[in-house]
Amino acid sequence: MTDRGQAPVAELHGVGPQVASRLKALGITCELDLLFHRPLRYEDRTRIVPLGRVRPETRVQVEGRVVHQEVVQRRRRMLLVTLADDTGQLTLRFFRFFPSQLRMYREGNRVRCFGDVRFGPQGFEMAHPQAQVLGKGEPPPLPKHLTAIYPVTQGLAQATLAKIIDAAVDRLLDGEIRLADPLGSSESPPLQEALRIIHRPGPEENLDALIDGHHPAVQRLATEELLAHHLALTRLNQARARQRAYALKPDEALQEKLLGVVGFEPTGAQRRVVGEIMEDLGAERPMRRLLQGDVGSGKTLVAAFALLAAAASGRQAAIVAPTEILAEQHYRTLSQWLEPLGIEPVWLAGKVKGKARREALARLAGEASIAIGTHALFQEGVEFRDLALIVVDEQHRFGVHQRLALAAKGSEGVRSPHQLVMTATPIPRTLAMTAYAGLDISVIDELPPGRKPVTTVVLSQGRREEIVERLRRALGEGRQAYWVCPLIEESDVLEAQAAETTAEELSAALPEFSVGLIHGRMKPADKQAVMDAFASGKTALLVATTVIEVGVDVPNASLMMIENAERLGLSQLHQLRGRVGRGSEQAACVLIYKPPLGETARKRLETMRETTDGFVIAERDLELRGPGEVLGTRQTGMLRFRVADLARDADLLEPVKSLAESLDVAGADVVIERWLGGAEQFVDV
Ligand code: ADP
Ligand code: MG
C-alpha cells in the first residue's frame, strides 16, 4: 500500500527548473505536496454581482459595459472608467495604466472584473481589478466552485502555482493519482473528498471554517498529519532507546573560569537547568532535551556550559542557529567567553567560502572542539572528528526533518550525539508534550536581575504623527529604537517594499537621525552591515520586517514600534517586544493597529499591555486563536505542520493516539511517508 503520485514536481508538465526551485521554497517537492498545499483564502467567481448591488469592503465579480473613459490629472495621472449594467454603475480606478488598458476599456466594450469594492468620490469603485474583455458572443462560463488563493513565494506567481495545483487536483479526481487511505471510513470525509473540498469548495461550503481550519475536510487532514508525527516520534523513541552516547563530564575549574570571564552570576534558574543538562550529558544515553526560556532569560550561558563540558571531555560540540545573524551573534559572544579559556570556536556558515572554508573544515575534522554556525555545519562535505553534542537554538524555525538530519549526522555506529534544543517560544506544558514528544524539558523561569518589564501602549495608526514625535524625543535622548513592519500580504516582496517605504517616510520625518533598514530579501552580508551599524549606535532607528524577531541583542535599544500589530500572533509580538528591555533604560513598546479592531485582536493587544510573562501570553494565545490567524499560526508554529495547528487542534491529540494503535505497520508507513517523506530516516537515527 503506497501512494501513487509521488512524482517529483520537476517532472510535471509546465514545471521548469526555476519553478521547481520556487516550489521547493514552499516545501513542495513532489506531486503530493501540491495537494497538501492549503489555500490561504478563496474568491467567489461563481457568480456575477449586479452593479447596483455591490457593497463596499467586499471582493466581488462584476460584468458591465464601458460607458465612459477618462484620464484625469490629480496629484498624478489616473484612468477612470465607468461600467454600467441594467442595475447601476461602478467606477474603475487605475493609478498606473498602460496604453493597452486604454484600448481594453474603450467605450462600448463589455468587461468582466474582479476586485475590492470601496466607497470613492463618485460612489462605489474598484481599483485595479483583474479583468477580461468579453467578446460579442456568449461570455465564458463561470466556474462551478470557488477559486483557491494559495500562499506563494518570491518569484512564483499566484496564477502559475494555481495552474500547477489545479492540474494535480484534476489528476487526483481522474484517479490518476491514487492516495492510499489507511484511515478509510473511520474518519470522514475520506481523504480524496477532503482534498477536493479544500481546493475546490462549492459555493455552499463554510468558507470561514475552511480558512480557519475547523472544517471537517481540514480536520481530516490535520488528524492524519498529527498521526504521522505521533507515529514517527514513537518510532524515533524506540530507536533512541537502543542508542548510546559518550558521557561528557564538566570540568569545575573551567566552569569557574568561564563565570569569571562572563562577569555575572547565573540566576537560580540557569544553575538549575545547567544541573539538569549535566546530569543528562554524564550518562551514556543521548540527551534529548528542550530548553525553554523566555527572550532574554540567558539561554546562551546555559549553552556555553554544555559546550564546555564536551570540550573538557576531549570531544566536539556544535551550536547551530537558523539564521546567519543569530549564528554570528553566538559566535561573537561565545568566542569572547571561550577564548580566554583557550578554546577557539570554528565559524561555519553558507557564506564561508574558499580558503576560510577549507580551514574551518580541516579544524572540524581535527583539533577544534567547538563549532558555531548555521545548518551549513551539517551539510554534505562537513566531517566532524568526534561530534558528541549538538545545541540547536530557536528550534521553532527548524522542522522535524532538520532535527532528524542533525541527529543522523553525528551518529557514528551506535553512538549518537547529545542534543539540546533551545527555544524562546513559551509552550504550555500540555502542548509541549506533543510538540516535542520524545524530548525532556527544562525551563528557565526567571530573568536576570535588574530587568524592568517593558511598558506597552496600544495606539491606532491614526496617531502616527504623535508616535513619530515620541520617537523623535526618545532618539534625541540618545536612545535607539526599532520600527517593525510585519507581513501584511502573503509575500515577502511586498513586506520588503512596505519596510522600504516606511524607512523612507521615517527618514524624511526625522531628518536629524540616521535610519537603517533591514529585511529578509537582503543579502546576509548587507544584513550584517546594517545590524553592525545599529549595534554600534551609528544608526538610531532600525526599520525592519520581522527578520529581527530572532537573535538581535542591542541593549541600548529601548523603544519598539510595531505596525499592524493586530495582524500578529501573541507569541510573535512577545518575541519582538523581547528585543528591547535588555539594558538599564526603562523600555517601551508601542503597538500600532489599524482600526477597526475585531474582538479577538483587541483582546490580544490588551494581553500584551497587561503582561510580559511569556507563559501567560502563550496560554492566552491558545485561548484566543481564532479565525483568520493564518499568519500568527504560521509564524509561531513550533513544529512546522502543513495543516495541523496545535493550538486549534489540541482536541485531536487524544483520538490520534487511539488511531495510532489501530493502524498496522503498512498503514503507519503510508501515513509517515506521506507527511514526513521517507520513513527510512526514522529507523536508524
Ligand atoms: P536568550 O535566552 O534570549 O538567548 P541571552 O542569552 O541572549 O538570552 O541573554 C540576554 C542578555 O542577558 C545577554 O546580554 C546576557 O549576557 C545577559 N545575561 C544572561 N544571564 C545573565 C545573568 N545571570 N545575569 C545578568 N545578565 C545575564
Ligand atoms: Mg538567544
Structure description:
Residues 280-444 form the Helicase ATP-binding domain. Belongs to the helicase family. RecG subfamily. Its EC number is 5.6.2.4. The protein is an alpha/beta fold and 685 residues long. It folds into 4 domains: 9-43 and 146-212, no CATH class; 51-134, OB fold (Dihydrolipoamide Acetyltransferase, E2P), CATH 2.40.50.140; 213-449 and 627-685, P-loop containing nucleotide triphosphate hydrolases (Rossmann fold, 3-Layer(aba) Sandwich), CATH 3.40.50.300; 455-611, P-loop containing nucleotide triphosphate hydrolases (Rossmann fold, 3-Layer(aba) Sandwich). It is built from 24 helices and 21 strands. The chain has a 7-stranded parallel β-sheet with strand order 11-12-10-13-14-9-15, with helices on both faces. A hairpin with a 2-residue loop joins strand 5 and strand 6 (123-127). Residues 397-402, 626-639 and 679-685 have low confidence and may be disordered.
